[in-house]
Specification:
Order of helices and strands: HHHHHHHHHHHEEEEEEEHHEEHEE
Radius of gyration: 53 Å
Shape: rod-shaped
Structural class: alpha+beta
Number of helices: 14
Distance between the termini: 134 Å
Helix content: 40-55%
Length: 383
């Protein structure tokens, strides 16, 4: 009788497998080879269709071994039978009777089936008495069927109460842990990217512009330092020094640029650019200050004809010119000279004139130089 029960259970496993394969595609068609996520999906489908569940341990006990040596308890049998499309385990066996098998034999096998289950389950006293007293007369076949159905309903009610007590959440917990792990990794990556953008936003969103300056008359590079002032609305000018024969590099996120370029030997020039359309590299011509250049030229020129040199300086400089000599020492800061004294200084043969630097000049309306600022680097004390 026990062998018949095992054969029926093997039939039931095949039909459970066929039912699942109608709507799902596990890693293997053979239910005995399912594992991991296949078992989880099967448990979900079982809850959906039969309103109950089996634990992962029970699955491995009864489905991984084929043929099995024992059958599960009645509540699991009823659950699997409902999943396969029957009303109960009794209904399944009734539709799969073997040759010479009668229904009473199927019914009387239930106490032995319960004894072989993974848990001892108390069977109602009236059913036990019915099984033990084989000579007890039943009124008719219909009463026997009703008794079996009543017993099945009681087991279904108990199974519905205990269903989640037997459910093994280990596999699902592992999946949730993996999801949480990768979620935290994703959040960390996003935060790292945001920190990087904040830390290097100036380098990322800024743009470099290169400005080279040439002499407008000679079309040659300017071999002198230039003062570049960046003008921004509502702010004081920002001063940069452009090195000789090198382009001035300006890095900014602004969409416009306003700057002035000045030098003692070139006229101050204001430059305005729309940086959205302006080229990254540009050459700008500066107009030379002829008087300042001549003044520097005459001060440097080694001319034996002192009289001619004096006449040229006298012609360039206004009679009312303001002339300042700048010192870099602790005794004097600046000294004012008149026109004649300055010309005498420029025409007196001395090696100190080789270190003369014209700091700034200005012209009057007649083109005469009316202001001079100069410095002699190697001669710091007044004459």
């Amino acid at each position: 009788m026990q062998d018949l029960e095992i054969l029926h259970f093997e039939q039931l496993k095949n039909e459970v497998q066929a039912q699942y394969l109608t709507n799902h595609h596990p890693s293997h068609d053979n239910i005995a080879k399912w594992k991991g996520i296949d078992i989880i999906y099967f448990q979900e489908d079982l809850r959906k269709i039969a309103k109950g569940n089996i634990s992962e341990k029970s699955f491995y006990t009864y489905f991984k071994t084929s043929p099995t040596t024992k059958i599960p308890r009645i509540d699991m049998l009823n659950l699997l039978s409902i999943y396969a499309g029957y009303t109960s385990w009794y209904d399944f066996k009734k539709n799969h009777l073997f040759a010479d098998e009668i229904l009473q034999e199927s019914e009387n096998s239930e106490p032995q089936m319960v004894e072989n289950s993974e848990k001892n389950m108390e069977i109602p006293q009236n059913v036990v008495s019915l099984e033990e007293n084989t000579n007890f007369p039943l009124k008719n076949q219909e009463e026997e069927v009703n008794l079996q159905k009543k017993y099945t309903e009681n087991q279904n009610n108990k199974q519905n109460i205990e269903v989640y007590e037997t459910y093994d959440n280990k596999e699902q917990n592992n999946i949730i842990s993996i999801v949480k792990k990768y979620f935290l990794i994703g959040i960390s990556v996003v935060l790292a990217v945001l920190v990087g953008l904040l830390g290097f936003k100036d380098e990322i969103f800024s743009k470099k512009f290169y400005y080279s300056f040439v002499d407008a008359d000679r079309n040659s590079k300017i071999n002198a330092e230039l003062q570049v002032q960046i003008l921004k609305e509502g702010e004081s000018p920002i001063i940069y020094i452009a090195k000789p024969n090198e382009p001035f590099v300006y890095t900014t996120k602004s969409k416009s640029l306003k700057m002035t370029v000045s030098s003692p030997y070139y006229k101050t020039q204001e430059i305005i650019r729309n940086l959205e359309t302006a080229p990254e590299a540009e050459t700008i011509e500066l107009v030379p200050n002829d008087y300042a250049i001549m003044l520097f030229y005459y001060s440097k020129k080694d001319d034996d004809e002192v009289k001619i040199k004096k006449e040229r300086l006298n012609y360039l400089i206004s009679d009312n010119a303001l002339i300042y000599q700048i010192y870099n020492n602790e005794f004097y800061g600046v000294e004012r000279l008149d026109k004649q004294r300055y010309i005498a200084l420029m025409t007196t043969p001395t090696t100190s004139l080789k270190n003369l630097e014209v700091i700034e000049t200005q012209n009057d309306s007649k083109g005469k130089i009316n202001m001079i600022k100069f410095r002699i680097a190697s001669h710091e004390e007044p004459k």
